[in-house]
Amino acid sequence: MEAAIAPRTRTFAWNRVLVGLAIVHGFLLLHWHSMPFIAAGMWWNANTISHNFIHRRFFRRHEINQLFSIYLTLVLGFPQSLWHVRHLKHHRLQTSPEQFPGCGQFDTGLIECLLLLAFWGALLYLEPRFALTVYLPGYLLGLGLCGLHGYFEHARGTVSHYGRIYNLLLFNDGYHVEHHAHPGLDWRDLPARQLGGSRSSRYPPILRWLDSINLRALEHLVLRHSVLQRFVVDRHERAIRSLLVEIPPVHRAGIVGGGLFPRTAIILNRLIPNAALTLIDMSADNLSIARPFLSAEVGEINKQFDPTEHCEFDLLVIPLSFVGDRSLIYKRPVARAVLVHDWIWRPVGTSSVVSWLLLKRLNLVIR
């Protein structure tokens, strides 16, 4: 495994950006007394500037690194030297004084703790109302956001998020599987180390609780109400119809996760009646629930879909509930044409909105 620190000349130049942003963060804290900003600023800084500083020093001179560590301690409200030791244990890395300013040195951690206590004491004495009603709630909320972020990065093993906007704003923090594989790598080099087939989520860590929303329960709700069935069929049919004109003639179509209420099979049976349709679902129970809605000609495959396995379908449809690396499907479609259900804020390729109410869109990618 790589060392925790791997300094390079070009890295020091880029670190000026992170240092400048840390200074801006401190300046805004002095002039913008807002509880949400305190919380959001702590969460953002801890997972960008502070996290990168833990793994790679920002300055060539040891003393300047120590001063910057103290500065971050006061801005974020927790001693950087102590968090450094704890974080590298999380990575199962050994630490040494040469790798980080003050790391393993009791005096540096003690200085940071004493200065932080003095700062809190002065704040409480000079501005007691602000300290108790704005700073303290914002500080605790920020710790909560950091805890939530860290939990969902590792809740089911290490998980990455490859969203462009998130990784732009948080300096490739989403490449977390890659970061654990190469903890000393500069943040700009992580995308080049993306691991094919690694665990990923469509959500950044702070929003990953959305993965826990039970789409299966919503499907069962649709099964019980004919009005909902007509609504979802109507909305999905409009989107599918608009994208089928972009696809060459379809003779064989596969529908992943086609069990429960098989809206896609119903729609494709109407729009391309001469095509052979096949449902692919790992749950035999789901397939049996879907069967009464379908004609006898619709086929079934009772297995888990593998996004890396080539298939002979002219058209493949991926559900919103797909569990796996959705970005891999976008990059390397396994069928000639692939329709991917995704959240409304994620247009890829040729795209059509299914429903603003359902927060869904349909993306078409062609091999």
Please, could you describe this protein's structure?
With 367 residues, the chain is α/β, with parallel strands linked by helices. The chain folds into 2 domains: 9-210, no CATH class; 215-366, Vaccinia Virus protein VP39 (Rossmann fold, 3-Layer(aba) Sandwich), CATH 3.40.50. Helices cover 49% and strands 10% of the residues. It is built from 14 helices and 7 strands. The chain has helices at 9-31, 35-47, 49-55, 62-76, 80-90, 106-126, 128-154, 164-169, 176-181, 215-224, 226-244, 263-271, 284-290, 326-331; strands at 252-256, 276-280, 299-301, 315-318, 337-343, 350-355, 360-366. A 7-stranded mixed β-sheet has the order 3-2-1-4-5-7-6, covered by helices on one side. Helix 13 links the parallel strand 2 (276-280) and strand 3. Helix 2 packs parallel to helix 3 and helix 4 (62-76) runs parallel beside helix 6 (106-126). The model is unreliable at 1-9 and 94-106 (pLDDT under 50).
